[in-house]
Amino acid sequence: MTATAEDLTINYEEEGLLLVKELDKVILSKGAWVTILFRYQNLNKSTGEYGNDMYTIRRYQKRQGNYIPKSKFNISSPQQAQKIIDALSRWTNEQ
């Protein structure tokens, strides 16, 4: 369990092998609920190499002093990421 938002990670290891490698993260909101945008790569076990960059938005809730995962949204491709960027840019520029 993690007590601070800064310590939250999506790095995932099995048998000493890092299967999910976090490349970067941006904390979008903090408090009792934390929202983080992660950039990461998955390991291809057959080649031993990491794949293309991927993105996910994760929400965590603080309970009894620790953050627990509550929900996630995986951005499936760079094209989908660009569509999200374009829509948010358009909407925020309209205000």
Note down, in words, how this protein is organized:
The protein has 95 residues and is an alpha+beta fold. Helix content is 18%, strand content 53%. The protein has one helix spanning 78-94, and strands spanning 12-14, 17-29, 33-44, 49-50, 54-63, 66-75. Strands 1, 2, 3, 4, 5 and 6 form a six-stranded antiparallel sheet that branches. Strand 3 and strand 4 (49-50) form a beta hairpin. The radius of gyration is 15 Å and the shape is flat. The termini are far apart. The relative contact order is 0.17. The model has no long low-confidence stretch (mean pLDDT 95).
Short description:
With 95 residues, the protein is α+β, with helices and mostly antiparallel strands. The chain is 18% helix and 53% strand. Strands 1, 2, 3, 4, 5 and 6 form a 6-stranded antiparallel β-sheet that branches.
Q: Which percent range describes the beta-strand content?
A: over 45%
Termini separation (Å)?
Answer: 39 Å
> What is the number of helical segments per DSSP (H or I, 4+ residues)?
1
Helices and strands, in N-to-C order? Answer: EEEEEEH
**Number of DSSP strand runs:** 6
Assembly type of the chains comes to single chain
Q: Tell me, rounded to a whole number, the average pLDDT.
A: 95
Largest sheet: 6 strands, antiparallel
Percent helix, as a range, is 10-25%
Based on helices, strands and strand pairing, what is the structural class? alpha+beta
Specify Rg, calculated over alpha carbons: 15 Å
Low-confidence stretches: none
What is the approximate shape?
flat
